[in-house]
Amino acid sequence: MRRLLPLLLAALVLLAACKRPADAPATDNVQTLTVLAGSELKDIEPLLPEVERATGVRLALTYAGTLDAVERLNGNEAVDAAWLASNRYAMLMPGVRARILASEKTMLTPVVLGIKQSKAHALGWDKQPDVSWKDIAQAAAAGKFTFGMTSPSSSNSGFSGLLGLAAALSGTGDALEEKDIDGKRLAAFFQAQRLTAGSSGWLADAYLREPGQVDGLINYASTLLSLNARPELAEKLVLIYPRDGIVTADYPIMLVNPAKRAAYDKVTAYLRDKPFQQAMAAATLRRPVNPDVQVAGQPAQALVELPFPARLAVVDAILASFDNNLRLPTDSTFVLDKSGSMQGARIADLRTAMLGLSGADASISGRFARFRNREKIYLLPFSSAPERLETFEMGSDAASNQAALQRVSQRVRALDADGGTAIYDALRDAYMAAIARRRQDPARFYSVVLMTDGQNSAGSNINDFVAWYGALPARDKGIKLFPIVFGEADQREMQRIAELTGGRSFDSRKSNLQAIFKEVRGYQ
């Protein structure tokens, strides 16, 4: 939010300066519209009070990732409306399509490549408006640049980037079919990916913290423009709008509850009207859908919209292929608290969450959160002291993977709660082992996930861990740590160690542990 504060202040001033309609409703007679919203819409929150003042409708937003939101809509979750970055995937599902009574686009931003000025110049792209996805893929496959992108199964920007690239490389010009997927060229392209994330905002923040880790990002144009506006970004990004096509997020707000039709109509009329469109564009740098609102900084060339697949099976095949065959493989360590405080429901919830990653969760989001082909999985249970690190390796065929998943499941079911809580001894053991593996096999995404419900009560403390990490050589740092906390765990300590390693902390007390585990998978 800090990176958007100047833009948001300007937008709020602009919105407040707009004259309210004479028939604007009084604020003491407010209706509420419950909205299942994409996580990208958090930057709209400061504009919602004016929406309420102008329409008499309060938007109560609950956030979810792309697949999670679609799954909840398909499962008949009781909401009045949904507001996502895109509804293309959702509308391929008959259950969701039947629930959507109306849909209106509210703003626009394409998914493009942002690349450092120096690298764009070296590639001859800084003054070349005709760069294509094929040019980008060829340069990536040749090792001429590296990039970051969000997980396609967790975030719409990664989802759109993957589908856009697959469609462009197919060269058909029509809606993509499974036979058109050029797996060889896609796999070569994703060998250049060195940074992943579960959300477009976190990806931008991770790049800002360590701009040297990649040469560019595939992300929303609005997010990249916002990143360029940050004074601490030493080298600006050149935005490449590939001439062979892009996929645009158009942020449709969709009516689900017919009883709220009148409130929905008021809100959509206001969201598409000039005052909100101006304020939205100023705050988020997205493009307005209202043709009467003009904004600066848009690409000079006409943008070609790539066709979206017409069948759900094609989209699912692309997502599964990405996770299992195209992307760099994963090295995932799970540091699991089995101290005495975990007895009862807590250790049962931990088992359920881990078993879900092993194949027990058959939901849409669960399928794409499972352990992947070629993934190396490490379990390090701990209580008063860390136990032995156990290894489980996924292969590339169903038989070997099923055997590995059965072994993971057997070990997880055997977890029993007893003893104290040696968080930092366990973390250090896990991190040291991951460092050694990365030195031998650097072409993987490495991460350490910590799950704990208590405060550290045995062994070294957080200051010891921070000092140990600080003394590591630069080449051994950067394996991201993702603490998941619940119960009495110290949220501030978990946030501190996450930020230390460039990771992110998750608080399952605000959700359920299984949902949090699936969210974490977007960052691995």
What does this protein structure show overall?
With 524 residues, the protein is an alpha/beta fold. 41% of the residues lie in helices and 18% in strands. The protein has 20 helices and 18 strands. Strands 5, 6, 7, 8, 9, 10 and 12 form a seven-stranded mixed beta sheet that branches. A six-stranded mixed beta sheet has the order 15-14-13-16-17-18, with helices on both faces. A five-stranded mixed beta sheet has the order 2-1-3-11-4. The longest helix has 18 residues, at 423-440. The chain is globular and about 65 Å long.
Low-confidence regions: 18-27
- Taking the alpha carbons of the first and last residues, their distance comes to 24 Å
The largest sheet is: 7 strands, mixed
In percent, how helical is the residue content? Answer: 40-55%
Gyration radius, to the nearest Å? Answer: 23 Å
How much beta, percentage-wise? 15-25%
What would the principal axes of the Cα set say about the shape?
A: globular
What's the number of helices?
20
Number of strands: 18
Q: Based on helices, strands and strand pairing, what is the structural class?
A: alpha/beta
Oligomer type: single chain
